[in-house]
Amino acid sequence: MSKTRTFYQCQTCGHASPKWLGKCPDCGNWNSFVEEKSFGGKQSLSVQSPGKTEPVPLHSIEGISEERTPTGIKEFDRVLGGGVVRGSVILVGGDPGIGKSTLLLQTFLRLSDRSGKLLYVSGEESPQQIKMRADRLPASTGDIILLPETSLEGILDAAKKLSPEAMVIDSIQTVYTQELLSAPGSVGQVRECAAKLMMFAKRSGIPVFIVGHVTKEGTIAGPRVLEHIVDTVLYFEGDRGHSYRILRTIKNRFGSTNEIGIFEMSDAGLREVANPSELFLSERPRNVSGSTVVASLEGTRPLMVEIQALVTQTNFGMPRRTSIGVDFNRVNLLLAILEKRAGMHLGGMDVFVNVVGGLKIVEPAVDLGIITTIASSFREVPVDPGIFVFGEIGLSGEIRAVAQAEARLREGAKIGFKKAVIPAGNAEKLEGAEGLEIIKVKSIEECIEAVLR
């Protein structure tokens, strides 16, 4: 009989220790060590090589075309790079109840009409629960096979017999392999099951969708190697107070990253948002100070979003600074630039900045919008509703050019805007103004003067 070894493993990074530790010496997390067991000192068996391979010159390898299968949901195809690639492994993460299972079930319902037999493996819900959800979705049940199973060996046996066109594992934290004694969801089980599913997908050519839980920090639970094993990592984001959901690409070996797909949650499942700019601006107030529209860029898609600000006299000794949807430190930096370069005394003011619609924007092109909306609220002067802005701001108050200005201008003209305040560096290189009145600015003083007349 093989000897059983007991050790302790960090559930965040996978660091192993012969004894329990309060703080992980590798990642620094507290109380993350859990007791694990293995046979003969071996934690993983999937790393064993199945056979010998010979080195091959690169020029002698024949290239192959990536055959993509459209899912029938355009927003999902966008983040995947055009469709599902055979043999790919796609990891979908998100907060509990955000709609991961609904998204994949809805995708499979569309995909089954054009691809054939599909396998949906559920380790958390019964077939009756999945059937109830499917009945609410606007699609036929198609040729979907449900398998309520948590044993990896049973899942792979069923997949080999059925030979489906694609399969879903919902979720990877509930699946376990009998080769390890640790509990489902542990670092060893998640790593081992993901590695075996990856090898199965590559050998059979069957795309595998994996649902992953997230931790309280917002990252996918399990070892970091989980994201390295798979081909594509998607995060399903959204605010519980809003009906909008954003599917964001973090990693994609078959397409571009930082792409987003926008959905709206309804009683009949997820609905695609074909024109998100109009949706985000549908309830925009007119002739009210502290509201500015910014042309942002998410991947290759330009978005027109509204940034709001509220500047009020503080009632305490320490003024408050709050930002939702934009980086807090970036807002503080822009406030310092406004005080130093524009002469606005904001030291005794509470400043609240919000991106309407629950979006999170990280690109520096929204700097000009943040500056403009804060100045508008401070001076109590509304911004012309027919104007939108974009541009990056330097520490000396200069406005720098940003990428893909033409795409931003096209989106603004399509929505119906008449004027655009853009960096002078972008205005010099424009080939066409898309029928807009272009106002080029070089500093924040020029921008405030042009917008807040």
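Second entry:
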Amino acid sequence: MNYSQTLEYMYAQLPMFTRIGAAAYKADLSVTISLNELLFNPQASFPSVHIAGTNGKGSVANMMASVLQEAGYKTALFTSPHLKDFRERIRVNGRMIPEEKVVEFVEKYRSDFETLKPSFFEMTFAMACWYFRQEKVDIAVMETGMGGRLDSTNTVHSILSIITNIGWDHMQYLGDTLPKIATEKGGIIRENTPVIIGEHQETDSVFLNIAALKHSPIIFATDNLTYEQLTTHSRSGILRASILRHGEKFLSEIEMPLAGNYQKKNLLTAVAGITALQQSDWLISHDNIYDGFRNICQNTGFQGRWQIISEIPLIIADTGHNEAGLAEVIPQLLDLEYSQLRIVLGMVSDKDAGNILKLFPKDAIYYFCRPDIPRGLEVEKLSMLASSFGLLGTSYSSVKKAFDSAVAESANDDCVFVGGSNFIVAEIV
């Protein structure tokens, strides 16, 4: 098989949550454990920073990987979903896994997959660990796919657990209350292993109880770290911050090309994680931290978070796709100055569309579309539901047609926002 044929096999033979939803979800680690054993447990051959959370885990993962790279460590990064290329999920020092390695892995173990029948995510996780061991990485930053307790990544050799926050997402799989969701995500807390919690929330007691049972030191990032000053240049896509630790200046004028206001919380969480690694004798200097944040996009290929596509007209893409994420993005969007706001909007069908749509402004012009995946919410349904919230616009048969129309109709001082789903953003970045 060539690379294209290999991907076709993976998508066709193995269920993929991001494409089809519930049918791909497995509340069980038995297949992952069998895959690990088949591969002689590559996931145990390197130390991992393990990151879970409803929002921000991808940002924190990329921030930490970039800093570790700047510190000279050969750093693996496992994230999901991808935007353009499957290989974005598996990187070493920012470089995607080669196409030939994807082909080699699938061809070598294809007969075993026919027997074990792993999900797409289980197979991808196994491929990542297999490749990271071959590359002899010093450390891996591993983002959970969903939840934590029963996520394939929960079999890694974790030296630090990070939970960014808890919000309403994937309730049909993780639980219908925040404490239930927190319990699933808190499943990544390991025995005698430090855990960083990004935000104080009503779920604090869940994490405190799990950490106590596991004899694991727990740190809430905002207990130790605060901002002295912060400026966000939304139009240039640059965030600048100074950070205090225990009331004393720790980092002055950090600069990062991720200007979403929500990155403030992620920045503190990442700094707390880096500090925990320093205290565990990982050699990371202040210069490494500054350079890691400044060079995150070059180092890891990170994109899709308050990404400036164009300045005239201003075009912004953001992958925020649930209520908690968009509640951070929309106010920042409304603070910008423009003549007319135009929003290219699409969603997937298993999100709580009502609670999301109520966040969007009524005075914008909407360009409704459907992401090109089976889970995509039918554009007619989205348009009808949006109109019940006073959001009016035109429906399009593809993301590209919606985006091209929004841009064509824009004056130089207008703003076009593209969002609602990772998959909408993926089709235009």
